[in-house]
Amino acid sequence: DKLYGIDVDLREQATYSFAVETTSAITDRFEISIIHTVKPPVVWNGEGLWSEGDKWPSGILPSPSSRVIVQSGILTIDQDVEVVGLSVCAGAGLTLKEGYGLTVDTLMLKSDSIKQIASFINLGYLVANTVEVERHIPKAAFEYIASPVVEQKANVFGVLSSDPGIGMRLFSYCNSTNSWVSITNGNDLLNPMHGYTFSNFTDSQTVIFSGTDIYTGGQHVTLHMNTRGFNLIGNPYTAYIDWGSHNGWDRDTSTLKPVIWINYADNPGAGNFATFNHHSGEYTNWPVSYTHLRAH
């Protein structure tokens, strides 16, 4: 950037050089003052497009130096966007339309204690120094979970224990032996679309998946069909999956049953499950507190 004038708006985390151009000898002393002013975040609420200036609080689109919070509703990015930070609150959504790019230092996708998550549908191209995706885990309740971040390691859960009922326990499922396999090496990579089960026996925990890239596009997993056990498949995306939709799924109904099982264990030792049949649209055993998940 070439900046001229007395007051200039410097971008965060950018390096600038200063030079004085003159045709005569310099005898004066020059002083440069840099004043750091923290700008309040720009908060979005409601449904609409990024380009709709009248829907932003100030009536002005965020600038490259802005920090944006999507507090509620769904914000759709319909132009190339650059901001310093973008945070999507639990229950809110962000969609990046095809053909457009989002450049951001930190993208944060939040969650809460009733299992609402921030939804981010990436149909364009994302350039981020850091992407953080939260998942809330109740205390001592085994939770099914998968990583939406590429090349995430098992140490994202913390220091893993090998002792039953103590500390942080992480397992993968082996279909051929119908058994759970304990994971204690924090350097193990979490495979895409592979489901895991995790419990923190000490306290509730917000797991924060963190990296520079998230899973997008088509993802594939090999299913094993035998009489020993089930297949534990994880959602690899930073958005809900509509199990009832007839679009975007390659499901062979001759070998794959239309029913999914959802673990909503909230209490220590609980193993509560709800089911949903996408053929009949029937819900079974859904707790009232989780009705917000039915459409997803």
List the helices and strands and how they pair.
Blueprint: E1 42-49, E2 67-77, E3 81-88, E4 93-96, E5 101-109, E6 119-122, E7 125-137, E8 143-145, E9 168-174, E10 179-183, E11 196-200, E12 205-211, E13 259-263, E14 273-277, E15 282-284
Parallel strand pairs: 1-2, 2-3, 2-4, 3-5, 4-6, 5-7
Antiparallel strand pairs: 7-12, 8-11, 9-10, 9-11, 13-14, 14-15
Please provide a written account of the structure.
With 296 residues, the protein is mainly beta. The protein is built from no helices and 15 strands. The strands form 3 sheets. Strands 1, 2, 3, 4, 5, 6, 7 and 12 form an 8-stranded mixed beta sheet that branches. The relative contact order is 0.11.
Number of E-type strands: 15
Q: Can you count the helices?
A: 0
**Which runs of at least 5 residues are low in confidence (pLDDT < 50)?**
none
Global Rg? 24 Å
The proportion of strand residues reads 25-35%
Shape: globular
Overall mean pLDDT stands at 83
Residues in helices, as a percent range:
under 10%
Helix vs. strand class = mainly beta
Biggest β-sheet strands, sense, barrel: 8 strands, mixed
Give, in order, the helices and strands.
Answer: EEEEEEEEEEEEEEE
Distance between the termini: 45 Å
